[in-house]
Amino acid sequence: MTTDKKAQRIAVFDSGVGGLTVLREIYRQLPNESILYFGDTARLPYGTRSPSEILQFVREIILWAIDQDVKMIVMACNTSSALALETVQSEFNVPILGVILPGAKAAVRKGRRIGVIATPATVTSNAYRQAIQEMDATVQVWQVSCPEFVPLIEQNRIHDPYTYQVAQEYLAPLIDQRIDTLIYGCTHYPHLAPVVRSILPHSVRLVDPAVYLVKAITQELELLGLRNPHLPKPTRFCVSGCPEQFASLSVQWLGYTPLVEPTVLPTIETSEISPLSVREGLGG
After folding, report:
1. What residue ranges in 119-176 does DSSP mark as E strands?
2. Is 77 a catalytic residue?
3. What CATH number labels 100-208?
4. For this structure, is 242 an active site residue?
5. Which position among 146, 186, 238, 242 bears the catalytic label?
6. What tens digit of pLDDT does each residue of 59-108 get?
7. Catalytic residue (choose from 77, 146, 238, 242)
8. Taking the model in full, what pTM does it have?
9. What is the CATH number of domain 3-98+211-281?
10. Domain ranges (residues) in the chain
């Protein structure tokens, strides 16, 4: 494997700032890797979209990312991972990793009564329940749909009394079920950690799948011989919506104000996508 290939960026995408929880973990665990971060802010929230819309969005983002010459694509989005991961893995000749399996594995190691807070689309998909019960059928899983969380986070309303009230309503049924472990089933949700922690009993273990996703990324890079031994290039931030809005919102989690590029994604027709045509188009 050439050094040039190793130095290529890893594309990380989400509907908005949620994927910054994954980006921070990459900075921590894989400090040499160069990153291309894409936030599909013009079309968030993803969690209330239909499966066909999500698949279309994901295909467009992947085609764009491949055109940016990346070596790996990371879905830093539970909704996309739940609804599109297996399909696009079969369609594109590039390593694509999702967030659900690493999170489910970590939760099974920690608890027996697992709660999942997620977007409506992720809950409807049952992706976490299926992944967990395939690993251990005796583990109990309760899921709660939290449609208001992503808009509240994207509007920078984390510390609003209203957000606390909404969180209490969402978490109440899980507390009633005496969960011992809670999965943040959306990469936005760790941004709400102070609120969630203040409501849950202290004994409940929190699982941030981002931590375990980056461990999986590390393993995949090792397996493929793609780890970058050199210093990284500065992170590129791209969004489909307003760059200024993303920059001002993300500074609190990044610790600096990022330079954000406005980005227009390619539009594709579903009929244009097939495993063969895409692989041939990539020279794969």
Report:
1. 140-145
2. yes
3. 3.40.50.1860
4. no
5. 186
6. 999 999 999 999 999 999 999 999 999 999 999 999 999 999 999 999 99
7. 77
8. 0.93
9. 3.40.50.1860
10. 3-98+211-281, 100-208
